UniProtKB/TrEMBL annotation:
Purpose: The purine nucleoside phosphorylases catalyze the phosphorolytic breakdown of the N-glycosidic bond in the beta-(deoxy)ribonucleoside molecules, with the formation of the corresponding free purine bases and pentose-1-phosphate.
Family: Belongs to the PNP/MTAP phosphorylase family.
Keyword Glycosyltransferase included in the entry's annotation: yes
MF terms in GO: purine-nucleoside phosphorylase activity
Recorded GO CC terms: cytoplasm
Name the record gives this protein: Purine nucleoside phosphorylase
Coiled coil location: none
Pfam families: PNP_UDP_1
Pathway note: Purine metabolism; purine nucleoside salvage
Length: 268
């Protein structure tokens, strides 16, 4: 039995065998959303191979239960490439999610904006991404399944459903391209200018590896960024992780409303 199958059985023994309809990965400062789920919270420390609490603002627990009548699996935190130099750091958790029978994945993150119309507190639905970090979570995968097509990596049906939920709530949810930098240092003003020339609308240090892994595992995926700052050189604000955590709640409340409406309305 594979490690992911063993962990899936362990989780099912504690949270029940019903497959979660959706998986949800929470970004910096967004961990409180897991507390809204009626179910069982399992610390990552009790799931061998799951990431540790390497970044403040993340809650290292897997919560499985019900939110707005839907069975969900919520990852209160993620592992980042910059913590270990491993782009595949979230592979095992996502393999476990697939082993639980989940088919759809929603990702959230905190990001820096490259657009004046996306100020701190705004939300952005990812339409596509640029892997500027220059690595890939499937490096070393021996099977030919590693050649994953990425044309519709950000699932059109999920994006349409999230857009409809936001529209019903009259919450702006523009689409944009997310550019993945490795971190942990923030981008330079020159890197921000380069990202803008390449067509990026926001920058961040996560999400892209999970999107690639999701497609590899056959999961439909979509992602939303909470804008916490403007990119370096685009404003006079001081950029720091503390600033990111402080600003994340501005968009998190709107994001929670959208996610609840999305779950309530359902999606094909």
């Amino acid at each position: 039995m594979s490690k992911s199958a063993e962990l899936a059985r362990l989780i099912q023994s504690r949270a029940g065998a019903e497959p979660p309809k959706f998986g949800l990965v929470l970004g910096s400062g967004l961990g409180h959303l897991a507390a809204q789920v009626e179910g069982v919270a399992i610390p990552y420390s009790e799931l061998p191979g799951f990431p540790h609490a390497g970044v403040s603002g993340h809650v290292p627990e897997l919560t499985i239960g019900t939110l707005e009548g839907r069975r969900v699996a919520v990852f209160g935190g993620r592992a980042h490439y910059y913590e270990s130099g491993r782009a595949d750091a979230m592979r095992l958790p996502l393999e476990v999610l697939a082993a639980l029978g989940t088919e759809q994945l929603l990702l959230t993150n905190a990001a820096g904006s490259l657009r004046a119309d996306l100020p701190p507190g705004a939300l952005m639905l990812l339409s596509d991404h640029i892997a500027f970090a220059g690595t890939n979570p499937l490096i070393g995968e021996p099977s030919e399944a590693r050649f994953v097509p990425m044309t519709a990596a950000h699932d059109p049906a999920l994006r349409a459903a999230l857009t409809a939920a936001a529209r019903a709530l009259e919450i702006p949810l523009p689409e944009g391209v997310y550019c993945w930098f490795s971190g942990p240092s923030f981008e330079t003003p020159a890197e921000i200018r380069a990202a803008r020339i390449l067509g990026a609308d926001a920058v961040g240090m996560s999400t892209v590896p999970e999107i690639i892994l999701a497609r590899f595992l056959g999961l439909r995926a979509a992602a939303i960024s909470v804008i916490t700052n403007m990119g370096a050189g685009l404003s006079d604000e001081s950029i720091s992780h503390e600033h990111t955590k402080a600003m994340a709640p501005l968009g998190a409340a709107k994001l929670e409303r959208i996610l609840r409406r999305f779950l309530k309305d359902g999606v094909a």
